[in-house]
Write a structure and sequence with these properties.
The structure holds two protein chains of two kinds. Chain A is mainly β. Chain A is built from no helices and eleven strands. In chain A, strands 2, 4, 5, 9, 10 and 11 form a six-stranded mixed sheet that branches. The termini of chain A are far apart. Chain B is an all-beta fold. In chain B, strands 2, 4, 5, 6, 9, 10 and 11 form a seven-stranded mixed sheet that branches. In chain B, a hairpin with a 5-residue loop joins strand 4 (31-37) and strand 5 (43-50). The chains are: A mainly beta, B mainly beta. Chain A binds chain B through residues 4, 36, 41-46, 49, 51, 90, 98-106, and chain B through 3-4, 31, 33, 35, 40-45, 48, 55-56, 58-59, 91, 93, 95, 98-99, 101-107.
């Protein structure tokens, strides 16, 4: 069965610092990979996704993620954190035979001024 | 274009009562999903509709949960009778096709006392 592990339930960075949110998945076949963000009192919003092709995926708001098959990882990065990036981030996968999303437990990003 | 809407935003009921949650997907989206997040854990898939048909209901926890999507438009999720462990946030999502981006609603926070 597929699963997703997000290391760190809370990550705190200073404004302007690098953001790195970690995600590892377990799957016998490379799945589709997603990062979602949830701002307070809002629904989840898709940041970026990997399906096939280029392993470095660029998303909205300056975020990007790199699919590394050998490490079964899909870490999310942003070069410079902004106060508006404070939110909860979810990594998710779906198999190539199913449309349902399997989520990690989420990482809450705090940005210090 | 209106997003996915859910009603109510909050519901507080007593154990043994019945609650019905409603989801209105984005117009034209044939695919509708229900997910649940319990007590800060990971978001878990409940079921997937394609139009009015249940495509995948592998995540439904037990027969106290009944989901319907009459006419292939809005969907309801009924919990009867509610138990304490049903407390959590119930998310609805919709997509135009199975592999398209899933757009999430803001969720319904259910508290069972």
């Amino acid at each position: 069965a597929q699963s997703v592990t997000q290391l760190g339930s809370h990550v705190s960075v200073s404004e302007g610092a690098l953001v790195l949110l970690r995600c590892n998945y377990s799957s016998s076949v490379p799945p589709y990979l997603f990062w979602y963000v949830q701002y307070p009192n809002q629904g989840l919003q898709l940041l970026l996704k990997y399906t096939t092709g280029a392993t470095l995926v660029k998303g909205i708001n300056g975020f990007e993620a790199e699919f590394k098959k050998s490490e079964t990882s899909f870490h999310l990065t942003k070069p410079s954190a902004h106060m508006s990036d404070a939110a909860e981030y979810f990594c998710a996968v779906s198999s190539r035979s199913s449309y349902k999303l399997i989520f990690g437990s989420g990482t809450r990003l705090l940005v210090r001024p | 274009e209106a997003g996915v809407t859910q009603f109510p935003s909050h519901s507080v009921i007593e154990k043994g009562q019945t609650v019905t949650l409603r989801c209105d997907p984005i117009s034209g989206h044939d695919n509708l999903y229900w997910y649940r997040r319990v007590m800060g854990k990971e978001i878990k898939f409940l079921l997937h509709f394609v139009k009015e048909s249940k495509q995948d209901e592998s995540g439904m926890p037990n027969n106290r949960f009944l989901a319907e999507r009459t006419g292939g438009t809005y969907s309801t999720l009924k919990v009867q009778p509610a138990e304490l462990e049903d407390s959590g946030v119930y998310f609805c999502a919709s997509s135009r096709s199975g592999r398209d981006e899933q757009f999430f609603g803001p969720g319904t926070r259910l508290t069972v006392l």
